[in-house]
Design goal:
Order of helices and strands: EHEEHHEHEHEHEEHEHEHEHEHEHHHHE
Largest sheet: 8 strands, parallel
Low-confidence stretches: 1-13, 430-446
Structural class: alpha/beta
Number of strands: 14
Distance between the termini: 33 Å
Strand order of the largest sheet: 3-2-1-4-5-6-7-14
Length: 452
C-alpha cells in the first residue's frame, strides 16, 4: 500500500483518502455557502473520505453560530485560523507579511496566510492526499495555492458563484480598478495552478470559462451542491390547514428584490378573493426594507417576516408549508444553483422558482419535476404559476403533481461523492487515460467533465 506522501507523485492513495478543505465559510455559522460546504464535508465523510477543514471565525454572524446537528461530527475536524485584530499600523504590517507569503493582496489575506501555515502544520502531522478550496470568497484559494505549491498535492478549486470581478448584472461588486485587477489576477492564478476547477452548474462553468479566456488546458467539472444523507433528515410532516402557505427561506437583497413578486401576489389575492386563504412567510435577513413594500402592496394580512433560525429547525418549518419560493435576480441567464433548491428538495415540498427564463432553476424543475419555474421579469407568468399551485392545493393534488422529493435524487451524497471520486481519480491518471475512461460528458479534447 503506497504511503500518502507518494500520492503527490501520481500513485493512488491509501484507503480512506485524506482531504483538507480551505474555506472562509463553514459550520457552525449557518449561512447558505457555509451550509453547502458543511453538507459536502458530511457527504465525503459518509462515503469514505477522511476530511479536515480550515475555516475562520465569524463572531458577528446573524444566523445560527453554535455547534448542533447535523454538523456535530465535523466539529473535531474543523480548525479556525485566528489572529488578533491589532492596531492600524500592525494590521498593515501583518497584511504585507501575509501578502509576501501567499502572493496576492486580496481582502482577507491575513486569514489566508495563517490558514496556509496551519494547513502545512496539519499536513506534517498527518499527510493529506488532496486539497480543496471553496467559497464564499475567492481568498480561500490562496492558502490552497500556497500549500499545493509546497507539497505538490492535487488541488481542486471551486467557485459556487463567479469570481469576484465578473459577477453578472444586476449584481455589482463595488470595487475600483485596482481591486478588480487584484481579483482578476487571483482568479487567473487559480486557473493556472489548480489541478481542477469545479462549479455547481454547467451554466456557471460556461459563463466563467467564457470570461477567463477559455483555459482549455485546465480540467473543469460541473458538480452540483449536495443534500444531507436521508438518515439525517429531521422528522417532519406536512400540516394541513385552511390557508395556502408559501415560504421563502434566505436573504432578500437589492438584486433579488421581491417587489415584482409581491405586486403580482397582491393582484392574485385580490382577483381570487383569497386574502384569508393565502399566506407568505419570509425567513431570513431583510436587506431591502420589506415592511413598507408589504404595506404599499396591501399585503399586511398575507405576508409575515421572521428572523433566521437554525438549519434543522428551518427544514422542519419548511416541511409544514404548502409550497416553497425561490426568488432570483433578473439576470440575463440564470447561472446560479441556489442552495435553497437542494434544501427545498430535501423536504419534498413543491417549489415555485421565480427565476430567469433560461437558467439553472428552470432547467432543474423541467428535468426533475418538483414545481413550477416562472420568468422573474414577467408578472403574467408569475401570476399563472401562483394560480396553478393554488388550484392544485384546493383540489388536493398539489403534492402528487408538484412534490419535489424526486428532484432530490440529483443531489444525494452518493451522487456527489461519486462525482468527486471520478474527478480525483483523473488527477493522478495520464490525461489520455482519463479522457478515455468513459465519463459522461468528457470531450475529445480539452479538459472538461460534466457530472451534473
Amino acid at each position: 500500500m503506497p504511503s500518502k506522501r507518494s500520492y503527490a507523485g501520481g500513485q493512488r492513495p491509501a484507503e480512506r483518502p485524506r482531504l483538507l478543505m480551505f474555506t472562509t465559510g463553514f459550520a457552525p455559522y449557518a449561512a447558505s455557502e457555509n451550509l453547502v460546504n458543511g453538507k459536502l464535508a458530511l457527504a465525503l465523510l459518509a462515503c469514505g473520505y477522511d476530511i479536515d477543514v480550515i475555516s475562520r471565525q465569524d463572531p458577528g454572524f446573524q444566523y445560527s453560530n453554535t455547534w448542533s446537528e447535523p454538523w456535530l461530527s465535523l466539529r473535531e475536524r474543523t480548525y479556525e485560523a485566528q489572529y488578533e485584530a491589532g492596531s492600524g499600523i500592525l494590521r498593515g504590517l501583518d497584511s504585507v507579511r501575509q501578502v509576501c507569503r501567499v502572493g496576492h493582496p486580496a481582502g482577507g489575506v491575513r486569514w489566508a496566510g495563517r490558514a496556509a501555515v496551519l494547513g502545512m502544520r496539519l499536513h506534517r502531522q498527518r499527510p493529506y492526499d488532496f486539497i480543496l478550496s471553496r467559497a464564499p470568497c475567492d481568498v480561500a484559494h490562496l492558502p490552497a495555492m500556497y500549500m499545493a505549491r509546497k507539497t505538490q498535492l492535487p488541488w481542486v478549486a471551486n467557485w459556487n458563484d463567479p469570481p469576484a470581478h465578473i459577477w453578472p448584472p444586476p449584481y455589482h461588486e463595488d470595487m475600483g480598478g485596482l481591486t478588480r485587477r487584484i481579483y482578476r489576477r487571483l482568479a487567473t492564478a487559480v486557473f493556472r495552478h489548480a489541478s481542477a476547477v469545479t462549479f455547481p452548474s454547467e451554466r456557471l462553468r460556461q459563463y466563467v470559462l467564457s470570461r477567463m479566456g477559455h483555459p482549455k488546458d485546465r480540467l473543469t467539472a460541473a458538480i452540483p451542491h449536495v443534500g444531507l444523507c436521508r438518515t439525517s433528515f429531521p422528522k417532519i410532516g406536512k400540516q394541513r390547514g385552511g390557508r395556502f402557505t408559501l415560504c421563502h427561506a434566505g436573504n432578500l437583497s437589492p438584486e433579488r428584490h421581491p417587489e415584482i413578486f409581491l405586486r403580482t401576489l397582491a393582484r392574485f389575492v385580490e382577483d381570487r378573493r383569497a386574502s384569508g386563504h393565502v399566506s407568505l412567510e419570509l425567513l431570513g435577513v431583510d436587506a431591502v426594507g420589506i415592511g413598507p413594500l408589504v404595506s404599499r402592496c396591501g399585503l399586511t394580512s398575507v405576508v409575515t417576516a421572521a428572523a433566521p433560525r437554525p438549519y434543522r429547525q428551518t427544514l422542519q418549518h419548511l416541511a409544514t408549508r404548502d409550497a416553497l419560493l425561490i426568488l432570483e435576480a433578473p439576470c440575463r441567464e440564470g447561472i446560479f444553483l441556489p442552495s435553497k433548491l437542494v434544501d427545498y428538495a430535501q423536504v419534498g415540498r413543491p417549489i415555485l422558482g421565480v427565476s430567469p427564463k433560461n437558467g439553472v432553476v428552470a432547467d432543474a424543475l423541467a428535468r426533475g419535476g418538483g414545481g413550477i419555474a416562472v420568468d422573474c421579469r414577467d408578472p403574467k407568468e408569475i401570476y399563472h404559476g401562483l394560480k396553478r399551485l393554488y388550484e392544485s392545493w384546493k383540489d388536493g393534488s398539489l403534492d402528487e403533481r408538484y412534490g419535489s422529493r424526486r428532484l432530490y435524487d440529483a443531489f444525494t451524497p452518493r451522487i456527489v461523492a461519486d462525482a468527486y471520486e471520478r474527478l480525483l481519480d483523473q488527477l493522478v491518471k495520464p490525461v489520455d487515460v482519463a479522457r478515455s475512461a468513459g465519463v459522461s460528458g468528457a470531450p475529445a479534447s480539452g479538459g472538461t467533465v460534466c457530472y451534473s
